[in-house]
């Protein structure tokens, strides 16, 4: 850092001529006062004062040097010492990037020792009582100059000036750092300041979170929202990282909205779910049975109420309750019509001695049975058998009446027995009264007689 003497360079003859005229002008008035190099005579103050070469010389320092005025001279020092670019080593500290004062600032330089000057009149004080950056107070002490306050700093307009003891620093405000001598916004997003979403703004930044997260108090990281706390699900809720899931109780399925549960229509799954009828219910289903039935333990089958066993019937004491599938009936006491007489509570007889009984069946036996509608065919449904066997006799079994729909036929199973067979499906509800006849033929004694079983069949409405 050598002081460069520019006063007498012959770079520009015009400038030299101007300087010469300037000097002459000062000499001419005849005050008889001359100042040494670096000073000019101030008429008002009547003393030699320092020339600020940095202001008066258009190109006091060359190149990348900066001019610093000194008492009786000036200094050229590298500009780099004024603005030390400062870059934080790690990007995660959005701290103000204060330049290190130790790197040196103009006002913290030790002032150059003033050159000795020739004694002159008036004598110029060449030694300041305080070092540079301080000013002499009235009490004789040296006080720090607040360059920021007095606006005598050299911070550039993007910087802020911070006064220090004996000097000052130029700094960037928070959120900016010094790049190329200018305070430029820190792009915090580029350095991953935010965990999830980041928006850079001049001098700052703001973090936000993806849906399902909330910003932590540190304003940078995000944490999962436990959505289940707000009970968004109709039924069950499971919190997940960044979201949540709903599930539904048995018998329900998740709706398209993902939160509500809608009933499953189990009845639509299969028509065999219930024996009779399926009724969908919220979260379940139930089987119902027609009147006269109840739902069995399996929940789907229908079982006939036995109204006769349970006493849940309307039969009088004189009547006999007869239960069948899906209902019951009250059988009136047997009434045998003349010439028949009653021989038991379900049998009438026509006496052989009675002439009116000739060509009439000897006995009529009353029987009742029930039959399910739609029973698969063929089906053996009733047995009949001769109870009295006469030597030399044989028996013929036949349906004498009641088989108009031809649903039945009689199949002889032995010499003395036969089976009533259902040969066509029969649909209830209806009562079918069949007269099943057993004809006894004895050619030895030339006898032919018959007995009747009057079979009443209660065909149920339902196939169960
Ligand atoms: Ca920023
Ligand atoms: Ca969650
Ligand atoms: Ca259901
Ligand atoms: Ca019944």
| Strand order in the largest sheet | 25-26-27-33-32-29
Assembly context of the chains: single chain
Q: Give the structural class.
A: mainly beta
- The fraction of residues assigned to DSSP E strands is 35-45%
Q: Count the E strands.
A: 33
Bound molecules: calcium ion
Major sheet: size, sense and barrel closure?
6 strands, mixed
Spans of at least 5 consecutive residues with low confidence? 1-32, 83-126
Task: Please tell me the total number of domains.
Answer: 5
What percent of the residues sit in helical stretches (DSSP H or I)? Answer: under 10%
Summary?
The protein is mostly beta strands and 464 residues long. The protein has helices spanning 13-27, 53-56, 307-310; strands spanning 39-42, 47-50, 65-70, 73-78, 134-136, 142-144, 160-164, 167-171, 176-179, 182-185, 197-201, 204-208, 213-215, 222-224, 236-240, 243-247, 252-254, 261-263, 277-281, 284-288, 293-295, 302-304, 320-324, 327-331, 341-344, 347-349, 363-371, 379-385, 393-401, 408-412, 417-422, 430-442, 447-459.
């Amino acid at each position: 850092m050598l002081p460069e003497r520019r006063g007498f360079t012959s770079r520009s003859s015009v400038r030299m001529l101007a300087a010469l005229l300037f000097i002459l002008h000062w000499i001419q008035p005849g005050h008889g006062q001359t100042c040494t190099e670096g000073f000019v005579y101030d008429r008002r103050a009547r003393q030699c004062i320092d020339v600020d070469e940095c202001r008066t010389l258009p190109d006091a320092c060359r190149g990348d040097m900066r001019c610093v005025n000194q008492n009786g001279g000036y200094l050229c020092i590298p500009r780099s010492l004024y603005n030390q670019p400062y870059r934080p080593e790690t990007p995660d500290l959005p701290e103000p990037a204060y330049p290190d004062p130790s790197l040196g600032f103009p006002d913290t330089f030790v002032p150059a020792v003033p050159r000795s000057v020739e004694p002159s009149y008036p004598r110029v004080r060449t030694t300041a009582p305080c070092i540079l950056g301080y000013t002499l107070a009235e009490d004789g002490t040296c006080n720090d100059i607040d360059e920021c306050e007095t606006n005598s700093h050299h911070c550039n307009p993007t910087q802020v000036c911070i006064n220090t003891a004996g000097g000052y620093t130029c700094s960037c405000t928070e959120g900016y750092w010094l790049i190329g001598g200018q305070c430029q916004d820190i792009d915090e997003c580029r350095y991953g300041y935010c965990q999830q979403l980041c928006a850079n703004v001049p001098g700052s930044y703001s973090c936000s979170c993806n849906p399902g997260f909330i910003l932590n108090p540190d304003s940078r990281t995000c944490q999962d929202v436990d959505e289940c706390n707000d009970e968004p699900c109709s039924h069950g809720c499971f919190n997940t990282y960044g979201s949540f899931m709903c599930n539904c109780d048995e018998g329900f399925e998740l709706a398209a909205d993902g939160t509500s549960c809608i009933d499953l229509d189990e009845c639509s799954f299969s028509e065999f779910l219930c024996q009779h009828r399926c009724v969908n219910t919220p979260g379940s289903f139930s089987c119902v049975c027609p009147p006269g039935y109840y739902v069995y333990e399996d929940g789907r089958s229908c079982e006939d109420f036995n109204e006769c066993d349970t006493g849940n019937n309307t039969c009088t004491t004189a009547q006999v309750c007869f239960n069948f599938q899906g209902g019951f009936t009250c059988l009136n006491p047997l009434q045998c019509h003349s010439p028949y007489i009653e021989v038991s509570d379900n049998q009438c007889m026509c006496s052989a001695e009675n002439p009116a009984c000739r060509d009439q069946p000897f006995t009529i036996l009353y029987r009742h049975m029930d039959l399910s509608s739609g029973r698969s065919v063929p089906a053996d449904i009733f047995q009949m058998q001769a109870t009295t066997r006469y030597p030399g006799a044989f028996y013929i079994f036949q349906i004498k009446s009641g088989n108009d729909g031809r649903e039945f036929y009689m199949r002889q199973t032995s010499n003395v027995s036969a089976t009533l067979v259902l040969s066509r499906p029969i649909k209830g509800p209806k009562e079918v009264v069949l007269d099943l006849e057993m004809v006894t033929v004895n050619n030895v004694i030339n006898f032919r007689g018959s007995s009747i079983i009057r079979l009443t069949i209660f065909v149920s409405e339902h196939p169960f």
